[in-house]
Write a structure and sequence with these properties.
The complex is a heterodimer of chains A (307) and B (230).
Chain A lengths: L2 H21 L1 H31 L3 H4 L2 E5 L5 H12 L4 E7 L1 H12 L2 H5 L9 E6 L6 H12 L4 E6 L2 H42 L1 H9 L4 H44 L11 H27 L7
Antiparallel strand pairs in A: 1-3, 1-4, 2-3
Helix pairs in contact in A: 1-10, 2-8, 2-10, 8-10, 8-11, 10-11
Chain B lengths: L1 E9 L5 E10 L4 E5 L6 H8 L7 E6 L2 E2 L8 H5 L2 E4 L11 H11 L4 H14 L15 H13 L5 E5 L7 H16 L3 E5 L3 H7 L2 E6 L2 E2 L15
Parallel strand pairs in B: 3-8, 3-9, 6-7, 7-8
Antiparallel strand pairs in B: 1-2, 1-4, 4-5, 9-10
Helix pairs in contact in B: 3-4, 3-5, 4-5
The chains are: A alpha+beta (307), B alpha/beta (230).
């Protein structure tokens, strides 16, 4: 079969499927709506995660490890340690704060200046302020970094500031996993919906399938229009899901902006990126095709012409 | 073209439709298959078109043993056989053109070629100009001719027909039979199952007479064949 011929065959099958779908608009619309809702839910969850992350993105910079060195560790050794830590891929910046500098800061900012003057010697140790790179601020990554510093013999104590940021990140991790589970379950739902719709359509066109097989139509020829129908359902459902998500964002936009204003932020909701829309549409097409393929392969085999 | 070698067919419900039937149909021959309903005429045709497989014995069509044909090769096998049914099995929601074009469409024929050959086939059965009509807008005789056009559009070497005149009055029946003989004239092997003995005598081709699943008069070659009186 030449490419042009097979191309025109596919075009015919595609137009035929489109025509049949448009001939029963209500049934088609209902099926599309079910598929759209199944796809919109994980898409919305994904947006929730990305927006929560973006809204709190500057918190990553607030995460800091305070590494307190033992009081007998000299400043020179502290400099060496700071240089070594700076080499790590997950560390953005290391700042060495000498004991004198620490005392000076404390005197200036705490208001206990007079009381501190009564001290005979500086009670503060040398310390390092370690700021991790933003992409290493998950609770697991921070824990790894803490372990790294705790292992040093010169280190007395490591404090991870902003414990709540870690908790927040852990919640985001849970949401992300929830998203995967929801996507898998609802994807299976789309397969079932498309498969069942195709099964009904095959039952309705039984006579036509029998005649086609009778005149020598192969299984793949008979299956082709159903695969196109499945792809159209998947693509249509995904487009509708995109619309639903966009609508939800438009509705929520103002109240989220209000909320952000109360927190002194100018955060606005971000919609799906081009890439995310691509994934959504791609998932719709693949699920529609697969659901149709599974159903058609299974049910077409049982239809044989009886003469 | 067709060889039945000691063929028996028993259906799943236990009915024995054919019992030890042997006959040949030669290339370019036109043969009538006669007998009462239930005698096994339809079963013979179904075995030829591979709609059924024999319980015992071998069926050879066009040099191929249907017994050894794999399921995935059946579609290509069927494309070499034109089949006409009593109820013509047209798709009621498709225009005449689409119905006739179906065997070409499944064989991936280029669109321009399809257009040409569908018109040629409709011209042969005298229905040129009715491409856009739906089957139900045609008379019964015309519907049957659409079915014949569909059977011959891919120029098969073998044409089989199951009671093609069952629903037609004598004049229309004669017209349809003449059509079949015209295909035989251009080299097509034709097997027509019918219970219309008068028509059979009128057309005077070789007759395979079935009764209760057996061929009357034994082997086909010993059958008295009526001399054609065209």
């Amino acid at each position: 079969m030449s490419l042009a011929v097979s191309g025109s065959r596919h075009l015919q099958a595609l137009l035929g499927s489109l025509g049949r779908l448009s001939r029963s608009p209500l049934a088609t619309l209902l099926t599309l709506l079910v598929i759209a809702l199944a796809l919109a839910l994980p898409a919305a969850l994904r947006l929730l995660v990305t927006n929560a992350q973006a809204a709190t993105g500057n918190f990553a910079n607030a995460i800091e490890l305070s590494v307190y060195l033992k009081s007998d560790v000299p400043l020179a050794k502290g400099k060496q340690l700071a240089a070594a830590a700076q080499q790590r891929a997950d560390v953005a910046q290391v700042q060495l704060i000498s004991a004198e500098q620490g005392l000076e800061d404390f005197r200036r900012y705490s208001g206990f200046g007079d009381a501190l003057a009564a001290l005979k010697e500086n009670p503060l140790p040398n310390m390092l302020h370690v700021r991790p790179r933003p992409e290493y601020t998950s609770s697991a990554a921070l824990e790894a970094l803490r372990h790294y510093f705790t292992a040093w013999p010169e280190v007395d104590l490591v404090e991870v500031d902003s414990q709540w940021v870690m908790r927040f990140n852990a919640i985001l991790d849970v949401l992300r996993q929830l998203l995967l589970i929801a996507a898998a379950l609802l994807g299976a739902g789309v397969l079932a919906v498309v498969g069942n719709t195709i099964r009904l359509e095959i039952a309705g066109r039984r006579a036509e399938i029998e005649v086609t097989k009778l005149v020598g139509g192969s299984n793949s020829f008979v299956r082709r229009p159903f695969l196109y129908t499945g792809v159209l359902y998947g693509l249509g459902g995904a487009l509708l899901a995109w619309g639903i998500v966009a609508l939800a964002i438009a509705v929520l936009d103002e109240s989220v902006a209000n909320l952000a204003r109360l927190y002194g932020s100018r955060y606005v909701l971000t919609g799906p990126s081009l890439e995310e829309v691509g994934v959504l549409l791609g998932a719709g097409v693949v699920l529609g095709w697969l659901g149709a393929w599974l159903s058609a392969t299974r049910h077409l085999r049982s239809i044989e012409p009886r003469g | 073209m067709i060889i039945f070698d000691r063929v028996s067919k028993r259906y799943a419900n236990g009915r024995e439709a054919l019992n030890n039937v042997s006959f040949n149909v030669h290339n370019g021959e036109m043969v009538f298959l006669t007998g009462r309903s239930g005698a096994g005429k339809s079963t013979v045709l179904k075995l030829i078109a591979l709609l059924e497989r024999p319980t015992r014995g071998n069926v050879l069509v066009n040099g191929r043993n249907t017994h050894t044909l794999r399921p995935r090769h059946i579609p290509a096998f069927r494309r070499h056989i034109g089949v006409v049914f009593q109820d013509h099995k047209l798709l009621p929601d498709r225009p005449v053109f689409d119905n006739v074009a179906l065997p070409l469409a499944v064989a991936a024929t280029p669109l321009r070629e399809i257009d040409k050959r569908v018109r040629a086939a409709l011209d042969q059965v005298g229905l040129l100009g009715k491409e856009r009509l739906l089957p139900l807008e045609l008379s019964v005789g015309e519907q049957q001719r659409v079915g014949i056009a569909r059977a011959v559009v891919s120029k098969p070497a073998l044409l089989i027909a199951d009671e093609p005149t069952g629903n037609l009055d004598p004049d229309l029946s004669r017209e349809v039979m003449r059509l079949f003989r015209r295909f035989q004239d251009v080299g097509v092997t034709v097997v027509v199952a019918t219970h219309d003995l008068q028509l059979v005598h009128e057309f005077g081709q070789r007759v395979l007479a079935l009764e209760a699943g057996q061929l009357l008069g034994g082997a086909a070659d010993t059958l008295p064949s009526v001399v054609a009186t065209r």
